Fold this sequence. Notes:
- By secondary structure, this protein is α/β, with parallel strands linked by helices.
- The chain folds into three domains: about 150 residues, 3-Layer(aba) Sandwich (Rossmann fold), CATH 3.40.50; about 200 residues, 3-Layer(aba) Sandwich (Rossmann fold); about 35 residues, no CATH class.
- It contains 18 helices and 14 strands.
- The strands form three sheets. Strands 1-11-10-9-12-13 form a six-stranded parallel sheet, sandwiched between helices.
- Helix 2 packs across helix 10.
- The N and C termini lie far apart (about 80 Å).
- The model has no long low-confidence stretch (mean pLDDT about 95).
Amino acid sequence: MKIWKYPGRQDWKSIVGRQNAETPAEIRDSVAAILKDVAAEGDAKVLEYVRKFDGFSADKTAQADTSKQQAACLKVSPEEIGAAEKMVPDGLKTAIAAAAENIRKFHAAQIPEDIAVETMPGVVCMQKNIPMQTVGLYIPGGTAPLFSTVLMLAVPAKLAGVERIVMCTPPDKSGKVSPLILYAASVCGVDEIYRIGGAVAVAAMAYGTQTVPKADKIFGPGNAYVTEAKQQISRICAIDMPAGPSEVMIIADANTPADFVCADFLSQLEHGRDSQAILLTTSEALADAVSEELPRQEAVLSRKSFVDLSLSKSAAVVLSSEAEMVDFANFYAPEHLIISTENYNEILKGIRNAGSVFLGRYSPESAGDYASGTNHTLPTGGWAVSCSGVNLSSFMKKMTVQEISEAGLRSLAPVIGSMAMAEGLDAHANAVTIRLKRT
C-alpha cells in the first residue's frame, strides 16, 4: 500500500485511479454479443451460455430430453429450496433471522404515504406510490455466494408490495445453487429462482425468455460483466444503479487504533481483485502504523490472494486538515465511508457524496454489509455523487393524479390559456375552452 503525504488536489484523481475509468472494449463487446443473442434466441442461447460459462449442461440432466425440458431445468425446484434448509447450521439460521428482522425494521420505516393537495379551490393533485410489478434480483455466487444480498434486496421488495420477484444466481458445474442463497430466499418468501449467472442472467431478466419472465427493473451487484450488462440494458429496462468493485474510504484521526483501520481495509479488499480502500488522515504516524499492521492481519486471511491484488490499488493519504479530508471524500464519493474521529458528527455535516456512512470507532462497515439494518447495495465508482443506495422507494414508482371540478377549471383557464398560447400550442388552450363552452 502506498502512502501519499500532502498531495495537491491535482493528484487526487491519479491516487484513486478508478474515477471515470472506462470499461475495457473486450468486456463491452462480449456483453453486447450476449445481450444480442439472448434477445434474439431466448432460452436456447441462455442454455448455451450457461454451459459455456458455468459448466452446467441442462441437456445432461435427468428427464431433460427436449429443449423445453432443458430450459425448465434452469429453474430451481421447490424440493431443492426445501432441501437447502437442512444444509444450513442452526446458528447461521438464527443470524440470518436477526439480520432479516433488522433490515425489515429499517425499511418498513421508509414506507411512503400517498398525498393529496388542493392547490387551489376545485383543483386536487395527488401522488400515489405504486409497487413495481416484476423485479429481477441478481445474486452473485462464485467464490463468495452473497446470501446477504438476498436479504438486502428481497426484504424491501416484499415490503414495497412487488407482485413478482425473480432471482438469478450462478450454479456450479453440477447445476447446484448455494444452499445459503436458497435458504435466504426462502426466509424472504422468494421461490422463483433460476440457475443463471453473469451477464447472461441480466440479459434473460431484461428481455425475458420462454422460461425467464421480463423484469421491470433489475437489482444486484456483480463483476465487471454484470455491471456492463446492466449499463447496456438500461436503455430498455430500469436498473438499481451502476455497481462495480467494492470500496471503502476511512477518515481517521490520530487516536484511531491502526488495527481498526486495517481490519476495515481488509474487510473490503477481500471482496475481489478490483476492490479498493483509501485512508484519509492528518496523522503521518497513523498512516505508517496502518502500513506496518496490514501484512500481519492479511497473513491469516483465507482470501489473501484477492487481498494482495486489491491492496495494490489502495492507499493511505495524509492531508493537512479535516476540511481537506471532507473535500477529498466528496470528490471520491465512496461506496462506504467510515468516519473514525472524535468529532465525527461535525465531519458528517460536510459529507455530500457517499453510499453509506459509518460513524465512530465501533461502526465497522461489515455491520452494514450484514445486519445493522441499512442496505448494502450501494453506488460505487463515484456514482454516489448522483445515485442513492437501494431503499424501499427503489421498488416503487410515483404516479401523479389530478381531479379538477368545473369551478376549478374555470379558475385555471386563464392561466392555461395564457401559457399555451405563448408557447404556440393553441390546441392545449382549446382543450380548456371547449369544456367551458359546453357548460
